[in-house]
Specification:
By secondary structure, the protein is α+β, with helices and mostly antiparallel strands. The protein has 2 domains: 191 residues, Sandwich (Immunoglobulin-like); 90 residues, Immunoglobulin-like, CATH 2.60.40. The protein contains 8 helices and 12 strands. The strands form 4 sheets. A 5-stranded mixed beta sheet has the order 3-2-1-5-8. A 3-stranded mixed beta sheet has the order 4-10-9. Strands 6-7 form a two-stranded antiparallel ribbon. A hairpin with a 2-residue loop joins strand 1 and strand 2. The radius of gyration is 28 Å and the shape is elongated. Bound molecules: dinuclear copper ion. The site of dinuclear copper ion (CUA) has 9 residues, from loops. Dinuclear copper ion (CUA) binds next to loops.
């Protein structure tokens, strides 16, 4: 006997459901390393956003179940059956209409109250001592550029790029500004997104709770390399942070003869027209500050590991690695590339 229409329906529904479930379950995979997701918040600020999200998710789930349940119940309860006449047709029901106006208003109110509380909590200045005071918040200026990030520590007199180094347990206050178009600063585990605009400073604060590496990303379309405008946030222990600050404050020196040759190549080529290296004639502020380039883990705004091979590839043809970026192809000889790689990596 061929399967009935009903049993085929059941069969296909079961198939569809198991496929949907399999897709859903893939999102339950444990996070690999430090995930770029809002689901594992590591600061009080990010946690307040996650808590709000969880609350709204379950509120929406309740509404979904109530509405869909009502529909399914109605379809089943009033299905057409042999011998049943068309029921009496009515128009208008004051109780129902008042109900479905008041109930959604209450749901929206229940969602609005914690949303507004969270917004005010994140907008208010952090509850620590005055900026700059010992133990107070650490102030850092973030400058968005096409397509990389500059981080300036005015009190420590440090300028770095694409790697934001922070001490654990100390509140950080970021001032966000763009030098060109609108970007958006987003490190999901540490804080929500914030626009980075030209000529209008925005602010963000959070307090890192756990040492580690956190991935961030520009979250506002800003040109062809928008997707490659990444960053790393490295949270160190207070001692490690102090040691990092001390290293960054002094100029790094080329350590080998080849590195010394690289320093000369750097000084004699177009490099000095865009980059700065402390203690040398290079003082331009167009490209990233390279004073301690050797201490960074990535290059080209977080898209490549900072290895000699990748750096050589970048120096040979930056436009092939990251099309549209502002670094021109310098037509360097292989020996010059080799010396430059040695020099830049010696700047720890
Ligand atoms: Cu900067 Cu997208």
């Amino acid at each position: 006997m061929p399967p009935s229409r009903a049993s085929r329906m059941v069969h296909y529904s079961a198939l569809g459901l198991s496929f949907g479930l399999a897709v859903l379950l893939t999102s339950c995979a444990p996070p690999q390393g430090a995930p770029q997701t809002t689901m594992f918040p590591k600061t009080e600020a990010a946690r307040s956003i996650m808590d709000l999200y969880t609350f709204i998710f379950w509120a929406a789930a309740l509404v979904f179940i109530a509405v869909q349940g009502g529909i399914v119940y109605t379809l089943w309860r009033f299905r057409s059956r042999p011998g049943h006449e068309l029921p009496p047709q009515v128009h208008g029901n004051t109780n129902l209409e008042v109900g479905w106006t008041v109930l959604p208003a209450l749901v929206l109110l229940a969602v609005a109250v914690p949303t507004i509380q969270t917004i005010f909590f994140l907008e208010a200045p952090p509850a620590v001592g005055a900026s700059g005071a010992p133990g107070g918040s650490l102030r850092i200026e973030v400058v968005g550029k096409q397509w990389w990030w500059e981080f300036r520590y005015p009190e420590q007199n440090i300028i770095t790029a694409n790697e934001l180094v922070l001490p654990v347990g100390r509140t950080v206050e970021l001032t966000l500004l763009s030098e060109d178009v609108i970007h958006s600063f987003w490190v999901p585990q540490l804080m929500g997104k914030q626009d980075v605009m030209p000529s209008h400073a925005n602010g963000l604060w959070f307090t890192p709770e756990e040492p580690g590496q956190y991935f961030g990303q520009c979250a506002e379309y800003c040109g062809i390399q928008h997707a490659h405008m990444r960053m790393n946030v490295l949270v160190y222990t207070p001692q490690e942070f102090q040691a990092w600050v001390a290293r960054q404050q002094g100029p790094a020196q080329p350590t080998t003869e080849l590195a010394q040759q690289g320093a000369e190549v750097f000084a004699q080529n177009a490099c000095v027209g865009c980059h700065a290296i402390q203690g040398t004639i290079a003082q331009a502020r167009i490209g990233p500050d390279l004073s301690h380039f050797g201490s960074r883990t990535t290059l080209a705004s977080g898209i490549l590991q900072n290895t000699p091979e990748n750096l050589a590839e970048w120096l040979r043809d930056p436009q092939a690695v990251k099309p549209g970026n502002k670094m021109p192809t310098l037509n360097l000889r292989p020996s010059e590339v080799e010396a430059l790689v040695e020099y830049l990596h010696s700047l720890k």
